[in-house]
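seq:
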Amino acid sequence: MSTRFIRTVYTVVIAGLLLGLAGAGAWGIYTSNQTDAAERDGARVNDLLRWRQVLADYHARTGRFPTPDQREQAFAELEQQGAPIPPKTQPSEPHYRYSADQPGGFYVMCAALERPPESAGRSTTETAYFVTAGGSFMAKAEYCTDALPVRTANFVTATSMTTDAANTLLGIPTTLENKERIRELCAGTRDTRTAVYGCFRTGKPESIAILEITDPGLRSQTDVVAAHELLHAAYERLEPAERARVDKLLAEQAAQPGFEVLAEELTLYAEAERTGELHSRLATEYAGLSPELERYYARYFRTRGPLVAKYEPYRALLSNIRNQEAHLEQSRTRLEALLADGQDDAYNDGVGPYNREVAEYNVLANRYNLLTR
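struct:
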């Protein structure tokens, strides 16, 4: 076979969040003397939701989202074409931010929300409402800045992260890199027999690097890697007693039927890393975990089903490769037996089909190798 397939195991963490606000979108509980703050919050959220509709219309017409410096012209053109008129309060004015990642077609905008005054004459702005093309979520207002990470915010909605998970992810510098840069940044973080799609680096400061997957059929794996790496960060933050409890739940789950391949792959990691890797992989790759684990992972994801579904194309690729390997081994053994038995005609008849099987295998293996090799 002209292409060698390397078994993959990877460690990743990130979490996602899909959260919408109903009605006016005001948050918190307000008493009658706190109406002004509630109205301001509701107006800001509604402005963002109206802007989302305008952006969706613009994208439908042009196939892209406008960058902030293109915003005025873009929305003037939309208005001339009969599109909805944008709200008077535009993102990037005070309390609002709008950023777009033009090559990838992603955007994020946010508005700071105000808590009611804690004392006379004092108001604190602690929370913001974030909107992406994929959904919305709440997080700390300190992340609603001009440096708002577009792709990181989109990971939050793509993976249905909770507010706590969103705050963790937005607080860690996260970059998308090509495979050469990933090998450099993540050097020494994996067994050489495992493929590397990202890494969470502890220390001061922490950081996350994620492989930018461009294969259209496997692009959703980038979101999975983000969730995986976030979960590494979350695992590091567990208190000792809670970590011991979670470790027990993880071990019990991994011992159940259906997790044999995962158990085998975990042996490629250093023993000290296996439980943390199990913590990330169970959440992002397996549905139907124990009720206790489902309740635990609900800290990080509002729903895990869509996240696990994003992993399925990659799982299918690996499964097809393994199945093809097993079939090729059987075919090769049969051909070698024919040759040893002097059945040259039967051997020659089998060479063509075998070579076609090798070609099919190499298509799969090359697709895998293009990700990381």
